[in-house]
Fold this sequence. Notes:
Blueprint lengths: L3 E9 L5 E3 L6 E2 L8 E2 L2 E2 L8 E2 L8 H8 L31 H4 L15 E7 H6 L5 E9 H9 L18 E3 L2 H9 L22 E11 H5 L1 H11 L7 E8 L1
Amino acid sequence: MGTDIHMYVEKQNDDGSWSLVREVPAWKCSWCAGTGKNHLSPCYSCKGTGHTVSAYHDRNYDLFAMLANVRNGRGFAGCDTGDGFEPLAMPRGLPENLSKELAQKYNEDDENAPWLGDHSFSFASLTDVLMYNYDRTTAHRGVVDSAVYAEWVKNGRNGAPTDWSGGVSGKSVQAVSNERMDQLIEQGIASTALPSRRYDLTESRNGIRYVTTIQWTESYRNSAAEAWFNFLDACKKLGDPDRIRLVFGFDS
Length: 252
């Protein structure tokens, strides 16, 4: 089961209270990379405009780990995805002075009622999020098949592979060490031809789909990805970052 973030932006009023920011200054839609299209259809998220005015909502487990220790170094069913991240904070719960718009109870009959998920509620000022150290690095681990592994080796065993998963199982799947995978590829047993369909495992000459676990190092910044920083740049336009805060929760 996947995990999603439910985030809202609040701005502090002159009297110290907080109000919900209904629309963030427009920022590039990450679902369509600003093109306004998904394949040949208008982008579902931005309705074909190429930008959005909503708060951040991408499913990025690395960022969830940074914000609130959610899915930190672990994926579905607890699979190992790396050393994890030093979180900005452990979940703080919802602020006591939550804006009245967010304080209202979630109404299942109203699709427009704000919902903050069902666990790991937290909040952070825009200043805190901007000052977080994104220049640190961490080790990621993932399972790849022979074709993706060969491509990763060709690229110097640096950076993230083009495709990977937390774990792979199946009757014809066999996990081997990196050294054994090198031998199988050299012997022409394990195929290095990428499958025609994404997510399909490469089948070897003997009908076995060989997989291996690899590790690579990546900065927090790269792991957070461009969409996060596009969103933060938009939030800066709202004013004093000490008086802007992000309130969020997660569902699983």
